[in-house]
Amino acid sequence: MYGKAFAPEYRGALGALSVNSSLEEVREAALGQLRRAEESGDPLEAAHAQLAVAESSRRLGLVEEAERAWRAGYRAARAAGHQGAMAWAVWSGGTLARQRGALALARRLLTLAAELAARGDDVVARGYALAGLAETGRIQGDYAAVAELHEQLLAEARRRGEARHTVWALEGIAQIHRNTGAYDKALALFEEAAEIARTADDARGHAWALRGIADVVSLHGRSEEALALLTEAEGICRRMSLAGALAYNRKMRGNVLYRAARYEEARTAYEAALEEFRAMAEPRGTALATLGLVKSRARLGRAPEETAADLDALAGTLRGRGLHHTREMVERARAELLEPVAAGAGAGR
């Protein structure tokens, strides 16, 4: 059985905040607590407050503020001599680095966070750091390297009855199955994650699970069902001010519409998602939304040579970033959109 979801990144005097608190509410409370901690000269409480500032800012897309906050939180935790708090600060920094596309830095920081958590005997911080490493490998497409770690983290979360981390691990494993073509397995895991998140009152996890379900059911041609699920997830994201999740939700809406050959609507969705990803300096989301936009424009009649140039430019921006799966998607789009044109031109000669 799973207990109610909680947010371990809200610590100390902020520990009463709900996992479902809006991010503006979290940020405001954290800034107030930071002022009080600094006035009282309590470096540990300052570290806890800076962590909440960093995480709420990151999820709101305020990446520069998040960067300053996690670094200040680490300094405060070090001054307090608290390795667990140091681990949480570095975990936040590693998560932000992944969001900003600095994947090598993300791995270094998350590895350090796991080491600090182990020395500080903070089991939850260590689990979150290892989860961050697993997610970094997964978004790169290194599934073989991280599948076992995902399963290990799932088993640990189930054993502790920790709903939020169980949901995260289920969604990660489901995404691996989805990306490798095992759609039925993916759907079952996303549905299990959605049910656990719902009963544990983990709104954020529920929104991500609904997005995953929508993705898979749309692959089976059930586009209206998928769009309804995305609308439900969007409502959750808006209530909690989840800027990143909202942008990915909108990008998925573009995917669903594209699969349904509703290319004009898909283009509009991708354009909106692209604007949101750029505003938060999120390179992976920016690349995925750009790819969807290129494909939609091609289906709406963009000249093949212009589509080829768009894909070349996108491949160039991805070079060296380590986003192997995204680069593969670009090459599949090239085959989908341009090879039939080339074959037709050859047949006409």
UniProtKB/TrEMBL annotation:
PANTHER family for the chain: HTH-TYPE TRANSCRIPTIONAL REGULATOR RV0890C-RELATED, REGULATOR-RELATED
Entry-linked Pfam families: TPR_12
UniProt cross-references to SUPFAM superfamilies, sorted A to Z: TPR-like (SSF48452)
Signal peptide bounds: none
Name of the protein described by the UniProt record: Tetratricopeptide repeat protein
